[in-house]
User: Fold this.
Amino acid sequence: MVKPKKPLPDCTIFWLAKAYQKAHGDFKEILKPYGVTNLQHLVLEGLWYEGGQTAAELGKMLVLDKATLSGVLDRMQDAGWIEKRRDPDDRRVVRLFPAPRAEACKDELIALRRDANNALLSDFSLEEQVLLKRMLKDLTGIKTD
Assistant:
């Protein structure tokens, strides 16, 4: 006789990790035809929101460390997704802008992200969605207001 398997322990960290894997993996598949990673998409959204930021400003907005962001920006520039331009008022400063390639698919990529968010939350009531988002923001400790 086979003994029943024990249920998984109630581990919040495990469930958060699994939720992240699902959300990240689903969106990764959606972005694959565009040749953009989830992190690169986040960078593009940040630049569409406010173009002309420095890498430091963008990193602060997206809560990304300098080392992570630096390599991502170099790869995105090489792939034609972003442009780095010298600030005309201070040539030491480099500002970041979405490249024409990014601007050409801006609406489509934003819609894909919006649809992915909606699909992820589709089994929740509006109240549950608001509560989940608030709790996730609280867990990160990131101030959004």
The longest strand covers residues 82-86. The chain has seven helices and two strands. Residues 12-31 form the longest helix (20 residues). The chain has one domain: 29-140.
